Amino acid sequence: MKILVCISKSPDTTSKIAFSDNNTKFDENGVQYIVNPYDEWYALVRALELKETNGGSVTIATVGGAEDDAVMRKALAIGADDAVRINAVATDAYAVALQIAEYAKSNGFDLILTGKETINYNGSQVGGMIAEALDLPFVSLASKLDVNGATASLETEIVGGVQSVEVNIPAVISCAKGMAEQRIPNMRGIMAARTKPLTVVEPAAIDTLTSFESYELPAAKSACKMIDPANMDELVELLHNEAKVI
């Protein structure tokens, strides 16, 4: 089984977020980048589990510059066999999806896995766009994935229950919580990642459809008022007069 896992970098959640050039650009100074957790914990780990069960290979792919190589090496340390970096700026979800689709077209992958979304943009768009570009079945927000021959069996959470889905492979799957458990790279994996292939591919000529006009930080949290549990009258009065419905 030949599996492609789409990898994106995201700022570490402890990074201080700031913007430059009149709030039109994300300020990367001092920002520590990590593998997007949904790509790493769910998509990549499940791909490795399927490889261990069924044999085959796991390739990781990203769209970005040379500065993304360190993030790719981290994913290789977890267990991926090789990496591909499409040498283009990741401007929007459409461009990223089509660049990955162009690479995947000529490489015959049985499964293409993505995390359900990135933690910095939360768009949840790339998987569906890749599937559309390749004319493949797409299952979003899958929490379980098994493969039997040419059929993938999946579960997705829906309101009030779980939905079971079967699709023929090749297919594109967006992976959500429950798909797999996080793996911590060991020293052997870290050392092996240094010599695993990381191929740089030049990008296809694809237009960007989205531009970012400006960024804005969320409003600061308001102060919290503590009410004595015995003073219910004060609580009721504040709920009537000061509480805001959001």
If you had to describe this structure to a student in words, what would you say it looks like?
This protein has 246 residues and is of the alpha/beta class. The chain has six helices and 13 strands. The protein has a single domain (2-215), classed as 3-Layer(aba) Sandwich (Rossmann fold), CATH 3.40.50.620. The protein has helices at residues 37-54, 69-78, 93-105, 126-134, 187-193, 232-241, and strands at 2-6, 9-11, 19-20, 25-26, 33-35, 57-63, 82-86, 111-115, 138-148, 151-158, 161-168, 171-175, 198-201. Helix 2 (69-78) packs across helix 5 and helix 3 crosses helix 4. The mean pLDDT is 88.
The CATH class assignment is Alpha Beta
The helix content, as a percent range, equals 25-40%
Q: So, CATH architecture?
A: 3-Layer(aba) Sandwich
Low-confidence stretches at least 5 residues in length (pLDDT < 50)? none
The neighbouring-strand order within the major sheet is 11-10-9-12-8-1-6-7-13
Strand runs, count: 13
Distance between the termini: 48 Å
Gross geometry: globular
What portion of the residues fall into strands of 2 or more residues? 25-35%
Output mean pLDDT.
88
The helix-strand sequence is EEEEEHEHEHEHEEEEHEH
Computed structural class = alpha/beta
